[in-house]
């Protein structure tokens, strides 16, 4: 069972003494978790939760980029004059 004690987390496993993490340990574990999840995302390791082929082929998601690219091209063209 997990218990929150201030900014610390206390957990009892198998009737043993509670595990108490300091703020620094919690921050380190959160950094490790975030790094692992980012690496998993970037390597496509989370494909069981997201269909990237469908996302890549969905042109409606590109609409905002096309408008921005067109606007940038226009601005560049008129700045050259």
Supply the number of helical segments: 3
Measure the end-to-end span: 69 Å
Mean pLDDT: 80
> Into how many domains do the coordinates divide?
1
Helical content, roughly? Answer: 40-55%
Return residue spans where pLDDT drops below 50 for at least 5 consecutive residues: none
Strand order of the largest sheet: 1-2-3
Identify the overall geometry: elongated
The string of secondary-structure elements, in order, is EEEHHH
Largest sheet: 3 strands, antiparallel
Roughly how many Å is the radius of gyration?
Answer: 24 Å
Give an overview in words:
This protein is α+β, with helices and mostly antiparallel strands and 81 residues long. It has one domain (2-79). Helices cover 52% and strands 14% of the residues. It has three helices and three strands. It has helices at 23-42, 52-56, 63-79; strands spanning 2-5, 8-11, 19-21. The protein has a three-stranded antiparallel beta sheet. The longest helix is centred in the middle third of the chain and has 20 residues, at 23-42. The N and C termini lie far apart (69 Å). The mean pLDDT is 80.
């Amino acid at each position: 069972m997990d218990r929150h004690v201030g900014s610390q987390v206390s957990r009892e496993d198998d009737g043993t003494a509670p595990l108490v993490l300091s703020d620094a340990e919690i921050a380190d574990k959160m950094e490790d978790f975030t790094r692992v999840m980012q690496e998993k995302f970037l390597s496509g390791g989370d494909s069981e939760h997201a269909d990237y082929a469908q996302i890549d082929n969905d042109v409606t998601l590109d609409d905002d980029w096309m408008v921005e690219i067109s606007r940038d091209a226009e601005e560049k063209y008129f700045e050259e004059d």
